[in-house]
Amino acid sequence: MKTVVIHSIHPREGKTKIAKELAGFVQLQGRQVILADLDFIADPHRRALGLPSKPNLEDLLQEITKQSDTKPFFDIQFSKEQLEEFFLNHQSGLKVLSSENSKKLANDEDIAQKLRTTVRNLKKMPYDLLILDTDSSNRDYNQVVLQEADLVLIVMDNFRYNVKDLVHYLRDLNDMGYDTDHFRIVLNKIPNPLQIPVEELEKESGLKVMGIIPVLSGSISPSYDTQTEDIHLIVSQPEKNPSFVQAIGSVVDELGILS
Ligand SMILES: Nc1ncnc2c1ncn2[C@@H]1O[C@H](COP(=O)(O)OP(=O)(O)O)[C@@H](O)[C@H]1O
Ligand SMILES: [Mg+2]
Predict the structure, then answer these.
(1) Sign of CA pseudo-dihedral 44, 49, 52, 57
(2) Cβ neighbours for 200, distance < 8 A, ≥ 6 positions apart
(3) 74: closest CA among 132, 140, 109, 120?
(4) Which positions ≥6 away from 72 have C-beta within 8 Å?
(5) Which parts of the chain have pLDDT scores under 50?
(6) N or C: which end of the chain has fewer CB within 10 A?
(7) 90 lines ligand 1 (CB under 6 A)
(8) Ligand 1 pocket check for 15: Cβ under 6 Å
């Protein structure tokens, strides 16, 4: 199974949108995909796929906490069946680990270790792709998750995107001894001529731009103001948004999951 983390430097740059559409695209191609929402910041009503709120990550973390009374974190192992009890089932077949009610979890002093245990167990599942959606906080639990990935996709929008912030962020990670060779950029929304061109972005950041996702037609301003992510998968209706779905498809091609 390939593990892909979706991350961004600033909130609201499109992580959740891209995470669920990538996951949905691969699932609709007949592969088995897990989408795990590890965002501890966003409000619960911003769930990506309109699924029920239970079971969720909190339930799984509680189970890990319970087991950690009697054994070290690295010894906590779940079978496929045990772990699947914490998943929600989307109609596409996608399995979703939801992070409902998670704000208080971020303050758990062992959250980084518990998340590592979670991610390592997820990685052992006999699925084709694991997509981990994150929040944009600079917390230790995010660093743990980034290091568990085969690939980290940094989503950047072109309204606010700031190459300097990215360069600083990468340098800070490197200074702390973390590797960033497996990081790539996904530009969410086509760069306009006033913004830094892709080549320059690649040169300055040292990261490859793996895809450019266009703005969905008709959804530019309203959806940015609402707090509610839509419940549909855009990739399930390619005829409605062909360029968006094509762009998601070409990121999937680059990931090499379907080949
Ligand atoms: N390419 C896009 N086209 C249209 N709307 C988008 C696009 N990417 C993101 N959005 C919208 O922008 C808002 C923020 O995106 P979201 O994925 O929730 O960001 P994040 O998870 O990084 O905080 C959401 O309402 C989402 O639907
Ligand atoms: Mg999000």
Answers:
(1) negative
(2) 163
(3) 120
(4) none
(5) 220-228
(6) C
(7) no
(8) yes
How far is the C-alpha of 225 from the C-alpha of 204, rounded, in Å?
Answer: 31
Query: Quick check: helix, strand or coil at residue 33?
Result: strand
Q: What is the domain-level CATH number for residue 206?
A: 3.40.50.300
pLDDT at 125: 97
Whether residue 82 has its Cβ less than 6 Å from ligand 1? no
Q: Is 211 in the pocket of ligand 1 (CB under 6 A)?
A: no
Domain range for 183 = 2-255
pLDDT tens string 158-207: 765 578 899 999 999 999 999 999 999 999 987 777 777 889 899 999 99
d(CA 97, CA 177): 30
**pLDDT 10s digits, 58-78:** 999 999 999 999 999 999 999
Residues recorded for the chain: 259
Which pLDDT score is estimated for 28? 97
Cβ of 1 below 6 Å from ligand 1: no
Number of domains in the chain: 1
Specify the residue with its C-alpha closest to ligand 1, atom 9.
14
